[in-house]
Structures are given as structure tokens and as C-alpha cells.
Request: fold
Amino acid sequence: MSGAVLTLNAGSSSLKFALYAGTGDLPMAEGMVDRIGADEARLTLKSASGESLPVADLPLNDHAQSMNAVLSSLRTAFPNTEPRAIGHRVVHGGANHAQPVMIDEAKLAELETYSPFAPLHQPHNLAGIRAAMKAFPGVPQIACFDTAFHRTHPWVNDTFALPREYYDRGVRRYGFHGLSYEYISGELRNTAPLIADGRVVVAHLGNGASMCAIQNGRSVASTMGFSALDGLPMGTRSGQVDPGVLLYLMDQENMDSTAISDMLYRRSGLLGLSGGVSNDMRTLEASDSKEAHQAIEYFVFRVQRELGAMAAAMGGIDALVFCGGIGENSRLIRARVCERTEWIGLEIDHARNAENARIISSDVSRARIMVIPTDEGLVIARAARAHLAQERAA
Ligand code: ADP
Reply:
């Protein structure tokens, strides 16, 4: 089969992948290597119908070995489907990349300069690219950035009020979850063009969570900024914190950047607020603990607050779209978020919400409320396919 593409998302100890045929929205197969480098490292591969497929018994000690194991397993399972292009999820594309780019050594060196901006993700994303370049020599590698969709922000939403030289040195509000927002934007363009031309707030509520104001298909504001820590509380991440708190912790509690980073990224958010009950919304919803309920209350409050902020950035709102694991599945959170949104013209229909319908606003709601399952992998596959189409046309 010609024109198949592989998508890769390399994390610190995981490598998620999906194989797409030349056309179609669903992958032919997907899987992951989990716990790379640990004794329990495991490679799993599933067909489109969800059936587990046999995998190669190869070492999984680092990204390069894991990539070889993935390659070997895919070749056995799909002997006639060699990927012609590989699309990578890369968290940071810096201030200028508004589109996916084809990777070569020079581009890789440039992307390495963004690692200090995203030290927990970027180096692993790039290790995944290096491993793929080795395992698939000569196959084009396309980097797709979580920051790219937000490059249309006006200056006021791209900067902090710090001394100007910091902006020039890269201290900017980059925004993240861009692949998800691009997917939702495309879906609206195809299925609800009038809304796509209007003012849309997308709430991507998953383990990581952010919101984005999209006006006429362009991102104008986002709750995430310089890092993926800002804005909403998340599974284990704090969301927005007064920077004075961090100064206090450094000065009075002798916490260094490693300790603060661990607290902000891994011990805060829903997990921290619930007193350790869970970072997982399903568990919190099922819990009787007062702290779990308070964590949900804080999450809902911050989503409502940011909804107002995102709408203000556009001078109003024509639609609110929920996506991400929580946004797509939690009737409770959607209902709670929309409890006090009449002021902004949003009225939920509880029966539609309970059915997980695509449109969950009432018939009299001035603005629409929608649930659209997001698909970041497909955005990456489309970028890789677009590269192949360009090559063919050249
Ligand atoms: P990630 O950001 O890692 O991609 P997901 O988008 O998969 O995360 O979202 C994971 C979150 O979605 C978890 O908090 C999980 O509890 C929540 N979630 C998934 N299904 C439901 C559900 N039916 N009800 C409430 N929360 C849910």
C-alpha cells in the first residue's frame, strides 16, 4: 500500500505510535512502548479493531531500541505497509514555527535550542526523532508542534509585563495543546462553518488541561503560557499560581527549582488539592471525600473563570466546545461548568448533556455548547500526508 504514514509521540519513558494508511481518519494499528528502560518495559500493538497483535521480543532500554522493536513488530504485522513519512509530536516549536516542518540535522539542532523552555518534554520528543531517523533512513520526518497553532496571538497575549529584553530572549506566552485546537477548528470548519467563522472557546480538559479562544479559525488567546503549567489546574499540575508564592517557598522554605518543579508538575492540581485521593477525575467523582469534592469545585471554578477571560479576549462567544478525556466524557463537569453561564449566553440542555450528544446547548441558548472528541494523532498524520502530497506534486 502506498502513502502510509507513522505518527510518533515520544515521552520520557513512553513511545506512542500509530500507523495510518494513505487515506482515512482511523489508524490501521496503534500501540505504545511503556516504561522504557525499566524491567517492566512493554511494547503493545493493537489492530484497528482493538485486537492485540504479536510484537517482537527485543530490548526496550532506550528510545532507539524501542523504535527498532516498533519497526520490527509493524513489519511483521503489516509486511506490505512501509511508512513513507513519519510525523512527530513536538511540544515546542519556538516563536516562529506556525506550521509543521520537515526535519534535517540543522532543524533538529534548532529544536534543541528550545529544550530549556520545555525540559520535561522536548528532549524526549527529539530523542524520538533521532531514533526514527536511524530506524527509517531516508524517510521524511515531519515535526508537528503543540505551540504552532498559537502563533497568531496578538502581542498582548504573547508577552508578560516583564522588562522587554526577556521577551526577546524567548520568555513569551507560547501556548500548548495546539494540535488538539487545530483538530477542533478543522471539525468546526467542516461541520459548522458559521460557527467556525465566529468566536469559539475550546476547553481541552484532560489530564493536561487548557482553554483557547479561537476567532475565525485563529487562536487569539490561551490559558497556557510560557510553560504547560499555567492556567487551569490539571491532574497533577498546579495551573496559575501567584509567582510570589514561588518566591516565598524559595526564600522561606528553602525549596530549590527541582523541588518546586516537582511540586508544580507532579504533586499539585487535582492530586494535591484532593489531599492525595487522585489525579483522575473519574476517581474524584466517585469519591466521598470532602477534599475530592473541593478539588472538583476548584477545577470547575477555574474553567468558568477562564471561560470569561477567553470570551473577553474575543468580545463575546458564539460557541463553547468541550474536548479531552474530561470534556468528552464527564457529564458532571460539563453540567457544573455550565451552571452559571447564562450571563454569557450559554444554556445547557441537561438531557442532551446526559446523552453525550454533540450539541448539548438548549434550543434557546444564544451560543452553542458542543462536545467534539479531539484527535491529535490525526492532525499529525495529515501533516505527514500533506508532505507526501507536496513531494508528489513537485
Ligand atoms: P491526557 O491529557 O493524558 O491525554 P485524557 O484526555 O485521556 O488525558 O484525559 C484523562 C482524564 O479524563 C482523567 O482525569 C480521566 O479521569 C478523565 N475521564 C475519562 N473518562 C471520564 C469519565 N467518564 N468521567 C469523568 N472523567 C473521565
Notes: DSSP finds 15 helices and twelve strands in the chain. The two ends are 21 Å apart (CA to CA). The pocket of adenosine-5'-diphosphate is lined by residues 206-208, 235, 280-282, 285, 324-326, 329-330 (CB under 6 Å). The first strand starts at residue 5 and ends at 10.
